[in-house]
Design a protein that fits this description.
Layout: H1 15-22, H2 28-44, H3 58-69, H4 74-81, H5 85-89, H6 93-100, H7 102-111, H8 122-139, H9 142-156, H10 163-183, H11 187-201, H12 203-237, E1 243-247, H13 251-261, H14 265-269, E2 272-278, H15 281-294, E3 296-297, E4 303-304, E5 317-322, E6 328-335, H16 336-344, H17 348-351, H18 357-379, H19 383-394, E7 398-402, E8 408-412, H20 417-424, H21 426-430, E9 432-437, E10 440-442, E11 454-458, H22 475-505, H23 517-527, H24 532-540, H25 546-554, E12 577-579, E13 587-588, E14 602-606, E15 610-614, E16 631-632, E17 634-636, E18 644-653, H26 658-668, E19 672-680, E20 685-694, H27 697-708, E21 713-718
Parallel strand pairs: 2-6, 12-17, 13-15
Antiparallel strand pairs: 1-2, 3-5, 4-5, 5-6, 7-8, 9-10, 9-11, 14-15, 14-16, 18-20, 18-21, 19-20
């Protein structure tokens, strides 16, 4: 397969040139169909021109030419030449299907952009288009091959566009399309997209790097030639047949390494890279032995991607050596088939589909990734969240870990046991409570390393922790945690909303079970909601006030039924809402005032968060004084059986062991220290701020009394906002 060259402008391709290019692998009938598709597209785009002024049909023809270099099948080439006719020429999909077959029509339809939808932002539009593209790609993977070729030709011809539009397209290319090409193993396409994107996005930086490389290239070429000849000579001595290539580092690769490692230009480019291509896997390992005998390997840099291929099917041996003059040498060793797949990725499935296992592996892994993408799409709350999750998975450096049964699992660098649990199965992730790494218990947030053996510990009643979102790195884990918590949040909100609504309905001598179904349907229609569960969740989350919902369900402002006032003297009006502390995420106990059972409390409805509980003396209560409609009458439930956080402040004398004495006194009173902060006041005294768990005010009083009995404690008090 020929590698596309990095260029801004290419000579216009003619249909005769394309037909000559595909003669080696297409039949005469397929070539005739190709010419017919060209005529069809030219007629559809008649009178249309590109920004450069050239006839529009030159673009689809060039896209087909790029795909012909990959030896793509004739359906893909026809789809490439017709990929804009639905959008730009309003040709129905049915006409394409009738003229060129259902497969071509499906690919073209998958490539067609979204119809004119009014998006709130460019980011949303981009995310929606990206989501549609990946979903179409899941139906037929050739969709993304045409899309990448389309983007590549657009990048080659960016010069006709305004500078701001060039930068936007270049940023999108570097953020999305180049990583997709990398994820699908299409190295040649990825490199050119990166180079062109870098040049368009940062033209000055690109020119500085380019001039520097050209200035030092003469000295480097002599060193590269000497190293290459020495490698060839030693391989011949061992009777190993190999093709040795000295590789030039690409500008964007140099720039990215400089940014990531904060290196000077000379430090990055002073690396010599070689690729050694041999005839078999056995020869790969024998060649590695020769290379390590020739130059000393740098410890910890050898990677065997033949035994354990990358997620995109890439296979090769990688090693870094101490070269002459102390200069590092990067060497990749692989077979001819592996080299083809490394350059073409999933496109090699069509180029070598007569039985090459490496090409089939790349195609299979792409399919597995797409299955994961479909699951992310189902779990994502919206298209932008979906795009965020997929971008996390697009361009990872992999680590390889083992399950207790010896199965190899691929994860991005920085992955944790939670990421692994979700990679195995969603249910295992949801029920994860711990892990053993190399047979030792470890925190679930521990970063995994290649070679670790990891066992996931689960429990039937466990559920995801919101804190996991702060350290998981895979899109699958993040999407599933958010999905579970969202449903859990809605369930808890529904339960709270039911309690709040029933309490309001008591004012009308009614309850949810006694409501008129017709009036419920009418109320749901007026609120634009689909079900009672959705309405209850809205009440629990504070989106809709319970009193107004109750009035809508049992009466209106014109009804004769009067709402009995809350807490009517001597009446049977409902009492305050009881707070149990087990309501989950829809009842929040804030850290500003740390209210605990026994304290007077006030509840405030906050949209999206449910009820927030404050002490009446809390300074944040002032913010709610002007909105009495958001107040909720609340009290602590009498049968509480859990701990609540409280904050106490201690003034202590600076003596050895004072902290241990304080901790022991807290333990004696059956309280747990959740947080501690120590501020030195002077050389003789310090202030400790402790956050502790207590059951109620009596329990807190017992703890304070015990702390006051310590000789080194001069003062103790409870801290309030």
């Amino acid at each position: 397969m020929s590698t596309p060259s990095v260029q801004l402008e290419a000579p216009p391709l003619r249909i005769d040139d394309l037909c000559r290019r595909v003669r080696s692998y297409l039949t005469l009938e397929q070539i005739r169909d190709l010419r017919r598709a060209y005529r069809f597209g030219a007629e559809a785009h008649e009178g249309q021109t590109r920004k450069s002024g050239e006839p529009y049909m030159m673009h689809p023809l060039a896209v087909a030419g790029i795909l012909a270099e990959m030896h793509m099948d004739h359906e893909t080439l026809i789809a490439a030449m017709l990929h804009d006719v639905i959008e730009d020429s309003l040709v129905p999909k049915e006409v394409i299907s009738e003229q060129f077959g259902g497969e071509v029509a499906d690919i073209v339809d998958g490539l067609s952009k979204l119809t004119q939808i009014e998006f709130e932002s460019h980011a949303e539009a981009q995310a929606q288009n990206f989501q549609k593209m990946l979903m179409a790609m899941a139906d037929d993977i050739r969709v993304i091959l045409v899309k990448l070729a389309d983007r590549l030709h657009n990048m080659r011809t960016l010069g006709a566009l305004r500078p701001d539009k060039r930068r936007r397209i270049a940023r999108e290319t570097l953020d999305i399309y180049a990583p997709i090409a990398q994820r699908l193993g299409m190295n040649a396409i990825r490199l050119e997209l990166e180079e062109l994107g870098f040049q368009a996005l940062y033209p000055q930086r690109h020119d500085v790097l380019k001039r520097f490389i050209q200035r030092i290239r003469g000295n480097r070429s002599e060193v590269v030639t000497k190293i290459k000849n020495r490698i060839k000579r030693h391989l011949r001595q061992e009777e190993l047949v190999a093709h040795v290539i000295g590789r030039e580092k690409h500008l964007y690769s140099i720039y990215r390494k400089m940014r990531q490692k904060h290196l000077h230009l000379s430090e990055v480019h002073d690396v010599y890279a070689f690729r050694i291509i041999v005839d078999s896997v056995d020869t790969c390992y024998r060649t590695l032995g020769v290379i390590h005998g020739l130059y000393k390997p740098v410890p910890g840099t050898f990677k065997d991607y033949i035994a354990i291929p990358k997620a995109n099917g890439y296979q090769s041996l990688h090693t870094v050596l101490f070269g002459p003059f102390g200069v590092p040498i990067e060497v990749q060793i692989r077979t001819n088939e592996m080299d083809h797949v490394a350059e073409a990725g999933i496109a090699a499935h069509w180029l070598y589909k007569t039985g090459d296992s490496a090409a089939k592996s790349a195609h299979k892994r792409a399919r597995e990734w797409l299955r994961g993408v479909i699951e992310l799409q189902r779990r994502a709350g919206n298209s932008q969240e979906f795009l965020e999750n997929v971008k996390v998975d697009l361009f990872p450096d992999e680590v390889y870990v083992f399950t207790p049964k010896g199965e190899i699992m691929e994860l991005p660098r920085g992955a944790t046991a939670i990421d692994l649990a979700y990679a195995i199965h969603t249910d295992i992730g949801n029920k994860c409570v711990g892990c053993r790494i190399n047979r030792r218990l470890a925190p679930v947030r521990t970063r995994l390393k290649t070679g670790d053996t990891v066992e996931i510990v689960t429990a039937p009643g466990a559920r995801p922790n919101p804190a996991w979102l702060t350290f998981v790195v895979t899109g699958k884990a993040r999407a599933n945690i958010r999905h579970f918590l969202k449903n859990l949040h809605e369930d808890e909100a529904g339960l709270l909303g039911k309690r709040m609504l029933n309490r309001e309905l008591e004012n009308f001598q009614s309850s949810i079970d006694q409501l008129d179904p017709a009036r419920v349907r009418a109320a749901l229609a007026s609120f634009n909601l689909k079900s009672m569960d959705e309405l209850l969740a809205n009440i629990g989350l504070g989106v809709r006030p319970a009193p107004l919902v109750a009035r809508a369900l049992v009466g209106s402002a014109t009804d004769t039924l009067e709402r009995t006032p809350r807490r009517a003297p001597g009446g049977d009006a409902p009492g305050p809402l009881l707070i149990h502390g087990t309501e989950g995420m829809v009842v929040t106990i804030p850290k500003c005032c740390y209210p605990i059972p026994g304290d007077p409390i006030m509840g405030f409805i906050t949209a999206g968060r449910g009820i927030v509980i404050h002490h009446p003396s809390c300074k944040n209560v002032v913010d709610f004084r002007a909105a009495p409609d958001r107040w909720v009458d609340v009290e602590w439930a009498p049968d509480l059986d859990r701990e609540f956080s409280a904050e106490i402040v201690l003034d202590v004398i600076n003596q050895r062991g004072v902290l241990a004495t304080v901790a022991a006194a807290c333990a004696d009173e059956n309280t747990n220290i959740e947080g501690i902060e120590i501020v030195e006041r002077d050389e003789h005294s310090s202030t400790m701020r402790l956050t502790i768990g207590v059951r109620n005010r009596k329990h807190l009083a017992d703890v304070i009394r015990a702390l006051r009995n310590i000789d080194t404690v001069t003062r103790v008090h409870r801290k309030r906002a």
